[in-house]
Amino acid sequence: MASRGRKRKAEAALAAAAEKREKPAGGQEGGAEGPSVVIEHCTSRVYGRNAAALSQALRLQAPELAVKVNPARPRRGSFEVTLLRADGSSAELWTGLKKGPPRKLKFPEPHVVLEELKKYLS
Questions:
Q1: Could you tell me which residues belong to the region Disordered (predicted)?
Q2: Most buried residue, 5, 67, 71, 79, by most Cβ within 10 Å?
């Protein structure tokens, strides 16, 4: 079993690596100018795999949006998708906090989130 210091350092390294991967995908826009989508997920592998699939679908369907995954330390057991508008307001597109068991109910199908996104952007 790893000591507390090692585990936290490993988590910090993973977060830094994820942040580096997200920067090129955001492009030249910056995200502060236009709307962006934030995906917050627990650090479990299953949550990460579902977040990666959802972020890829969002980037393909709405390339003008910046997609950020875990910009801050995520809450335990969370899977939430939020739209951050240019005026500073936010709209929740999906929350899996109260869903489950089974665990698969916590994760949305990409088309469900895209429909919600289109509703808020129209």
A1: 1-35
A2: 79
pLDDT tens, per residue, the chain with 122 residues: 555 656 666 666 656 665 555 444 444 444 457 889 999 998 888 888 899 999 999 999 888 889 999 988 888 888 899 999 888 888 999 888 888 788 888 888 888 899 988 888 87
Instruction: Determine how many CB atoms are found less than 10 A away from the CB of residue 81.
Output: 25
d(CA 114, CA 122): 12
- Token digits of residue 75: 């809450």
> Which H/E stretch holds residue 54?
helix 45-61
* Structural element, H or E, at residue 84: strand 79-84
Distance CA 72, CA 119 (A): 26
What are 117's two structure tokens?
A: 């996104």
Which residue type sits at 106?
K
